[in-house]
Design brief:
Blueprint (H helix, E strand, L loop, with lengths): L6 H6 L15 H9 L12 H14 L4 E5 L2 H12 L4 E6 L3 H4 L4 H4 L4 E5 L8 H7 L10 E8 L10 H13 L3 E6 L2 H8 L3 H4 L7 E4 L10 E5 L8 H7 L8 H11 L3 H20 L6 E2 L7 E5 L2 H10 L3 E4 L4 E5 L6 H22 L1
Parallel strand pairs: 2-3, 2-4, 4-5, 5-6
Antiparallel strand pairs: 1-7, 6-7, 8-9, 9-11, 10-11
Helix pairs in contact: 2-12, 3-12, 9-13, 13-15
Length: 361
Amino acid sequence: MNQKTKPWIQIKNSKRGFGSDNHSGVHPQILESLSFINEGHAASYGTDDISSEAQGLFKQKFGAQALTQFVFNGTAANVLALRLMCETYNSVLCSDVSHLNVDECGAPEILGLCKLIPLPSKNGKLQLEDLKKAVIRRGDQHFSQVRAISLTQPTELGTVYSFEELKSIISWAKSENLYVHIDGSRFSNAAYLLNKTYRELTTDLGVDVVSFGGTKNGLMFGEAVLILNSDLKKKAPYVRKQLGQLPSKSRFIAAQFIAYFRNDLWKEIGSHSMKMAQELRLRIEGLPGVEVMYPTDSNAVFVKLPQAWIKSLREQFFFYVWDELTFECRLMTSWDTQIDDIIQFSEALKSLSQQNRQREL
């Protein structure tokens, strides 16, 4: 083999860390699905049998009225959802720490053509009383009109809205004639934790659109936008096309979701990543110098660490510093996180904690 073709092999042996479930590889069963359909020809733009089968599976999960629109990434999923719900003079209420508000480079406003109104969150979650206060000046032509709320489930801080919290917020939103969007890049984790079906957490409560994650859940690429409100379906294909998010070979996204749902693989992936997060929390909580910040409902553990520890830790196990002022860090687990990864990281953290105590004595 020519030497120039070899460098990619080095990447195969890169060490697992806690940066993101985006960092993991593709789940073997999902990767196998891509190989399996990679023969012959199939119709394009979602008119093939594989895409139709995936559409059917989403209908089984979310209800017969569900329309599935495959897109390439999460930002596109959220933008498409907002475009369906809002006119250019509308605004969307969201959490101050939501991906929508913090990590999408203004795309919701520039491409979603609406205004975001971030509200203060408690452990990442919007509070009903704050939502009520934000719905003001209705009918005032000088003021952007609130049209929708976006709930991240699980939240950016790894917490999960309880079923009663969802029911309360969504019921109020419907009484105010507001659309409800769920940003669900890790939505399966919430369904697993709450022991509820996808439909019970969305369609039955009155949710209008869901951004359903794939990439963070073992897929190579691809997300699904689920339009549950029939009034929003008609323009969805045209808006997706305008946004440059109509996949030509959509069967390669669809096949991954078929594998994801088959034999409840989604439960295996979600339960493992969440179990690993709980194990991580258990092993590091209470160590001197380590402050665990929020409930660990999903597959994220947030901790405050002394600044001096972070560089050496990240050289061994990569993770993100969530807040560069407080040195709050995010530790993410994924479908391929192993118990040895947890043990090695916790031992490294324990060693730093002990060294710090010795210096203080």
